[in-house]
Every structure is written in structure tokens, then in C-alpha cells.
Amino acid sequence: MELLARVKQSLERGDFVDVDAFSDEEQQAIRSFNLITTKPVFYVANVDEAGLAHLPVHAVEQLAGKKGRRAAYICGKLEEELSQMAEDEKASFMELYGMGESGIERIIRVGYEVLGLITFYTVVNQVMRAWTVRKGTTAARAAGKIHSDMERGLSGRRSSPMKIL
User: Fold this and answer.
1) Looking at CB atoms within 10 Å, which of 79, 123, 142, 147 has the fewest?
2) What CA–CA distances, in Å, run from 130 to 4, 7, 127, 144?
3) Range of the domain at 67
4) H or E element: which one contains 73?
């Protein structure tokens, strides 16, 4: 009951439930509640061209930082223009606006970081595929995501296990 009361107080204040503020045993109990406020969160702001280097982006980043969250931003208009360009034009266009990566790429990168995910690549017969796995997953376990026989085959090797970072 004490645990539920603490969770309720947090929710009544309008805060997210910070699972890390609880003991390991309490964290297990809280996770079993499946509260949406315990899920990973990051903020996304759609800004205009002028906002890419000014106040709106910094304000969103500050707000997210105060809450212990991450932020990403996108300029929908520029993303639309980028989507219609040839690959060779994209680099110079992005450089003009001081963009190291597109907004879509930034949102995906931050989302992966917040969720603790990475991409595991496989190449078979000159065909490359990308698989999403949790950061820290062993290579054998990642291979098992593709096909369970691969996991058994890699796990049976006597060499030290590879770990995907």
C-alpha cells in the first residue's frame, strides 16, 4: 500500500513515475502495473527554418532536460524538400542549414538511444538486412532473432561470446 501511495502522489502532481527512484523490488512491482508514465519518453518539436538554430529548439531541450528526458526536433518543411531531392543535392542543402543529419534520422537516433536499441546487420548473398535488437545483446542472441537455428549454432561455439555494443 505504501508503494501505491507513493506512485499515486507522483501521478497526482502530474509527474512521470521515476522507476529509478525506487528499490529493485519496488521497481519490479511498479513495472507490473504497466503504467504509461513509466515508459521511455522523449520530446519532438516541429520547428520552422529559423527555429533550427534559435529559441524553440533550445526551449524544448531545456524543458526535456529538466524532466530528465531527451528532445529531438524536425523542420517538416525542410524534410519534405529533402525527400524530393536527389542524393547528391541533399548534402549541400543540409550543409546550407547546418544540419549534420536529417530530422528523421535525428528522431530515429534519439528514439533508439532512449529505448536502448541498436541495429544488427546481416549479409547473405550480397543482400544486407537490418535488425533491431537491445543494446548489449550477444551476437548469438541477435542471430536468434533472425532464426533460432543460428542462435543455437553460435551459442554452441567454444570461443568467447561476442557482444553487440
Assistant:
1) 123
2) 41, 39, 10, 14
3) 42-115
4) strand 70-74
**Residue bearing cell 550543409:** 95
| 109 and 47, same domain (yes or no) | yes
CA distances from 152 to 98, 128, 143, 144, 147 (A): 47, 22, 9, 8, 9
- 138 burial (CB, 10 Å; 0-12 / 13-18 / 19+) is middle
Separation in Å, CA 55 to CA 58, 70, 90, 96, 138: 5, 17, 25, 19, 42
Instruction: Write out pLDDT tens, residues 28-73.
Output: 999 999 998 888 889 898 888 766 666 667 788 888 888 788 888 8
Instruction: Check whether residue 121 and residue 111 sit in a common domain.
Output: no
Length of the chain: 165
pTM score: 0.71
